[in-house]
Model the fold of this input.
Amino acid sequence: MSEMLIKSLEGHFKDQIKSLKFYCGEVTIEISPADVIEVFKALRDKDEFQFEQLIDLCGIDYLKYGEDEWETEEATGSGFARGREVEEKARELNSPRFAVVYHLLSVTLNQRLRVRVFVNQEDMQIPSVIDIWNGADWFEREAFDLFGILFEGHPDLRRILTDYGFIGHPFRKDFPVIGELEMRFDEEKQQCVYEPVSIEERILVPRVIRRDVEGPKS
Amino acid sequence: MAEIEHYTLNFGPQHPAAHGVLRMILEMDGETIERADPHIGLLHRATEKLAEIKPYNQSIGYMDRLDYVSMMCNEHAYVLAIEKLLGIKPPKRAQYIRVMFAEVTRILNHLMWLGAHGLDVGAMTMFLYCFRDREPLMDAYEAVSGARMHATYFRPGGVYRDLPDTMPQYEKSPWRNEKKLKELNANRQGSLLDFLEDYCEQFESSIDEYEALLTENRIWKQRLVGIGVVSPERAFQLGLTGPMLRGSGVAWDLRKMQPYDIYAEVDFDVPVGRNGDCYDRYLVRVEELRQSTKIIRQCIHWLRKNEGPVIIDDHKITPPKRADVKNDMESLIHHFKHFTEGYCVPEGEAYASVEHPKGEFGIYLVSDGANKPYRLKIRAPGFAHLSAMDEMSKGHMLADVVAIIGTMDIVFGEIDR
Done:
């Protein structure tokens, strides 16, 4: 099943596919933003693909990918302290940060495909697929709202999940989990006021990466 | 006479027919909808972001609170995604228990939908009937997990514990006499499986009752037939799944087409509509109630005959037995590590989807090898359905908007996440 799909993908998009992976029984391809419209049109319309549904579209921020908060090479005598400080670590420059991931489903051929597109770092733009799958509308608005990715050609790119008048893109990895503003009712002014958050961010369970854990073979 | 041109109407966010906190800006021409603009996010809790700062197992409870009327189905997708990345498969008995409870959950969800949908278009009795029949299923939830709604029962590698041999009983109180008490506890004398079997028995006649009330009901048909029609082509374009897609005549059910757990081994049919209107979707969902009962029966039958473990024995992923923790150093360490650090999931990404009562519910999990997800994306069926609101309600009357919201089976827990 998947071999067929991989073969036709390689045949059709020889020049566009930057990488192709088969893992956990799922096919993932990566393409560049310039090819988005052309490739997706073909994926929808060509007989060997027939991906008539866009199941999901989401943004990912790779800013802190592979970073841990606690090294575990050896057993430590001190253990880790509760409430660790949030550290800022330098990141490799030039590595792409934001990606949009599309999950496609073909009901006719009963197959799935994942497509990852890294967004241009300078202008944060990527072509909208709303004309290919109309259902992309809200998914793109969500990715814009949470990550600040701009979908070129989207007719109505408004915020969708966050509050009216919200500032920032909350799912970016450099946006604190506790937020930036807090709201309360002010007795004197008799209205709601926004102030910088008064609580401190802390880590209860540190992020640990263990390289000795093995996954499924394919 | 004054000419009234287009005007806008604010619907919700506090409106009994809005099924939660839906705010809609309706542009109207008289009583006809020209454009509907749903504003969502009033229940946004950033579940996906919260999951990024917690070990994997601590987020199972959050899954219950997404679509809070089909709790275990959400958990199901989440644990399947983790299992995919870990490359483990739960024991057969655990898979049967999961499927049985997934179907119990489907009945819970569809009953909630049927009752609320009925109430929206004026059938008060349905609401009471449906809530009456939801109650025993909640008791089944409670018997197995200790919680009536937010069960947190599924685990990567199986389920939390085996099915109980006894059911909790109603207790004596000044408001119940001996006779009444006996009546209430009559079907609770055996195990959970006996209780569920007894439920299936009487539930089938309950479905007949619902159908007698609604299916040929003149008012019900007037409100639903020909409302919110979606063609199969448009359904694909808009990303509709589940009963919304099957109502339009597409025989697509993940339980059949991409079976997970033991769905390939149970026998059931996939009901399909013809016209793609609200009435067909009603018929599809009612038939799904019957099919779910059928699946539950098969699971009960199998579970009676086959004993066995309900969670895998790998203590790097699942906690060891309580008794072992007291006696065995290794188990004590495993127990401690499991509940503090959790387990690391190998680097990679996986998408697991289940046929949720509302449609395709998917979990897209990206792991960088840590004990917490790097990114978790919840693909909620209701999100795609509600985005089709504008198209489905265009040209309909204001009162039909309520019927369309009802037919979409909107729950804000999953849409706003």
User: Anything to note?
Assistant: Chain A has three helices and nine strands. The mean pLDDT of chain A is 83.
